[in-house]
Write a structure and sequence with these properties.
heterodimer; A: about 260 residues; mainly alpha; B: about 270 residues; 13 helices
Chain lengths: ~260, ~270
């Protein structure tokens, strides 16, 4: 798929998101609601035990805001594949001369671009002033952080893609999505940074890609990860992008041969 | 009496329809259970590290979680249909209930009884039991008698908020984002003791969007938490009253909504 086609798909889904203004304001409110809850929670917790997980009270607030802004920016519509399989419109996608994977990614990218520009960035800037957060932005940290953001986004996209492909086997994908949300909330780092998990759980967490979705980019961007640590985390992230990419390819090939279009 | 029988039949039918696809139902049950367990996991990780949240120890936080989840179970059982209520309006499904000689709300509620809510009851009961045990609640006759009232009050508060935001769809047709924020995101607030928030948020959760009465205030009473009265100690006993008032208000909004409603035409 060339860049022009990718851009076209992305632009269409970007446009679609602009249409619903009421939904947009509600979503902004929702973002602030979460930031209010978690900054209050961390303020209370760090008043009784500062320094946990290597964060200061100000540091954990910066983390909470950054992680939530990333999560908001990474908004995706993860229901499209299942809906297309259910109503059979996936047949049209299959005869298109573009890769199904890339088409989905383009649509997701357009969707997320809207939420990044219209929600994630404004909420981040506003919260930094509201909570008087000091984030020590450095050129190197920001560059590595942006790289990490792109990889985190790819991992989340492929995770959603793989869960979407379940629809080729089981039409009812919602229960699986629900379990995915549970895991993402718990392990993704948008609520609790991985540093605060009990040490005994960390090897288990390393076997899963979740921490590289929100935790890794947030920790690098706010300067919580030391430069050496950041490089290690980026390498792990890159490995996960490779693993998830291979899994996406394998599952897509298996799914394609399973597909039965229901008449109607 | 006749009406009750019809409602019971409707409810039974909706449960049986849900059970028709057993594997799908079981899968759904497991998923809900898993989701809330993950949410509980967040609390466990925090408590393992910090031992307490603003003076509330593990057992007490479990009690909070239990009250919220248990009353949410009842709310979901009755009012789950309202989560997608705007779709019922948009597709014209709601119009059918208007031409029948029964309360439209009753029909909506009883035709979509949500059996999967057993997951809430199971988790809620377990959390309440564990919470009560490990926080060393000193039960008294007064507390025993008050508990069911608190549950009913909590259910009425949560149901009232659902009913009121669903009624918004009578005016706007689309309201799914509003439902999402009121029904699901707001739960996040009351997983933690309300005393951690600043005064503005505390005021909001007490007087404007009073979900703090679902678990926080009554839990203060049951756990004998003195010394952190937010506005007035009497609030600890106010859950049933707040529930009754809110529910009556939301029914009024719903009635006004039906009065205003014009079919989408589809």
């Amino acid at each position: 798929m060339n860049l022009a086609v990718f851009g076209k798909f992305a632009a269409v889904s970007f446009q679609k998101e602009i249409t619903y203004r009421f939904d947009y304001f509600m979503a902004v409110l929702n973002g602030f609601l979460y930031i209010f809850v978690f900054t209050a929670l961390w303020r209370a917790l760090y008043a009784q035990g500062a320094g946990a997980g290597g964060f200061s009270a100000a540091g954990i607030t910066a983390y909470a805001i950054m992680a939530m802004a990333i999560r908001i920016s990474f908004s995706m519509d993860d229901t499209t594949i299942a809906i297309k399989v259910r109503d059979g419109s996936i047949a049209t996608d299959l005869i298109r001369p573009v890769s199904f994977f890339m088409m989905n990614m383009a649509q997701c990218a357009g969707f997320s671009a809207f939420h990044t520009l219209a929600r994630g960035v404004p909420i981040l800037i506003f919260s930094i002033f509201l909570f008087k957060v000091d984030i020590p932005f450095t050129a190197r940290g920001t560059a590595l952080g942006l790289l990490s953001l792109v990889m985190g986004y790819l991992i989340l996209f492929m995770l959603n893609y793989l869960f979407g492909l379940i629809a080729f086997w089981i039409i009812e994908v919602f229960p699986f999505q629900l379990m995915k949300y549970g895991l993402l909330n718990l392990l993704g780092g948008s609520v609790i940074p991985v540093d605060l998990f009990p040490a005994s759980m960390k090897p288990f967490l390393a076997l899963l890609p979740f921490q590289h979705i929100f935790y890794t980019p947030a920790a690098i961007l706010i300067g919580h990860a030391t430069p050496e640590r950041a490089l290690v985390m980026l390498t792990e992230q890159a490995a996960w992008v490779g693993i998830m990419g291979a899994a996406s390819l394998l599952f897509w090939n298996a799914a394609k041969s399973r597909l039965v279009i229901q008449g109607g | 009496m006749e009406t009750l029988k019809i409602y019971a039949t409707l409810a039974l039918l909706s449960v049986r329809a849900r059970m028709e696809y057993k594997a799908s139902f079981l899968l759904f049950l497991v998923a809900i259970f898993f989701f809330y367990l993950a949410q509980l996991g967040l609390l466990i990780v925090v408590l393992a590290r910090f031992k307490e949240i603003h003076g509330w120890r593990t057992g007490e936080i479990a009690f909070l979680f239990g009250l919220a989840t248990f009353s949410q179970g009842f709310t979901t059982l009755f009012f789950n249909a309202l989560v997608n209520f705007d779709q019922m309006l948009i597709q014209g499904e709601f119009d059918r209930t208007l031409v029948r000689p029964l309360s439209p709300l009753g029909q909506v509620v009883f035709s979509r009884f949500e059996a999967s809510t057993v997951a809430h009851f199971f988790l809620g009961t377990a959390a309440l039991y564990y919470g009560a045990k490990y926080s060393g609640i000193e039960w008294s006759l007064k507390k025993d008698l008050f508990l069911p009232f608190v549950i009913v009050g909590g259910v009425m508060i949560q149901s009232a908020t659902r009913l009121a935001v669903s009624a918004v769809a009578f005016w706007t047709l689309r309201n799914s984002s509003l439902v999402h924020i009121v029904v699901f995101s707001s739960r996040e607030f009351i997983l933690y003791p309300v005393s951690i928030y600043n005064h503005g948020v505390q005021f909001f959760l007490t007087f404007l969007f009073p979900i703090a009465f679902v678990n926080f205030y009554p839990a203060q009473y049951f756990l004998d938490k003195t010394g952190e009265n937010l506005f007035h100690p009497a609030l600890q006993m106010a859950t049933p009253l707040v529930g009754a008032i809110l529910f009556a208000l939301s029914l009024y909004v719903w009635k006004r909504g039906i009065g205003h409603y014009q079919s989408s035409g589809s």
